[in-house]
Every structure is written in C-alpha cells, then in structure tokens.
Amino acid sequence: MGPIRGLRKRKRPADKKAEKCSASSSSPEEKVTDDWWRDFSSRITGPLSLSRETEKFESVFKISRRTFDYICSLVKEDLMARPSSFTCTDGRVLSVNDQVAVALRRLSSGESLLSIGVSFGMNQSMVSQITWRFVEAMEECGLHHLRCLSLD
After folding, report:
1. Which candidate, 113, 114, 117, places its Cα nearest to that of 21?
2. What is the pLDDT of residues 39-50, one digit of tens each?
3. What confidence tens digit (pLDDT) does each residue in 67-94 have?
4. What is the pTM of this model?
5. Residue whose C-alpha is closest to residue 105's, from 138, 57, 70
6. pLDDT band at residue 62, thresholds of 50, 70 and 90?
C-alpha cells in the first residue's frame, strides 16, 4: 500500500503580531510597570499623549494606577505559583500585569469574552481562564479587604 494521503503536517508561517502583547516580566519591576502601560494602551487605544495618560488608564480600568499596582502585587505570587500556558499570539508568556488587565477589563466592562479577546489578541477561552484565575487569587489574597456588615 502507498502512503496515506494528507498525512504530512504542513508548516504554517509564523504570525507577525509581536505588538499584540507586552513584553514578559524579565526586566526590573518598575520598568515593566511603566513600559507595560504604554505598550498596552497603544494596543487597545492607539498612541496617547503623556498628559492624558493617567486619565486614560482610569477610564479603561475604572481604578487608579496606584490601585492597579497594588492589586498586581496582591495576586502576583498566586498567579506565578500556578503554572500557566497563557501566551500571546506571538508565543510570549503573558505577564502578571497583562493577566490582571484582562481580568479587570472583563469584570469592569461587562463586555463579551469575544470582544475582550479581540482587543487583547487572544481567544475567548483564554480570557475566561485568566479571569477565573484572577478571581480565585483575589479570594485568597484579598479577602482581608472585605468586611461583613455587623448588625450592631
């Protein structure tokens, strides 16, 4: 018998979407935080003027930059402790800031998984998984910020 038809796998050309995702967190934390926002904001809203940077950040995430950094510091250990295969379309691993941004954007906007995925350059399943992991991490690490009302 001859070879089975269509058995060979074809190599697909690599996608040239390097600008879809920010750089991984291999550089110092302060530099990653500053560069991260500029890269991220240019991906979803285009280039920003430096004077409007803070306003734009708050309009996208509905929280201040300081609060965002605090949330990232709360969930960083938990998100990094569990192995994940969250990668950008160009193959780089998503940083903690990227994961927090995806989850906060999904939770604050109420937009569909598809529209969030399109704006971040990922599929809707990944958006769902990232959001779920973020919520679990916040339950574990940020529970001390929640208080039940007392009847007194």
Report:
1. 117
2. 665 555 544 444
3. 999 999 999 998 888 777 787 666 767 8
4. 0.64
5. 57
6. confident
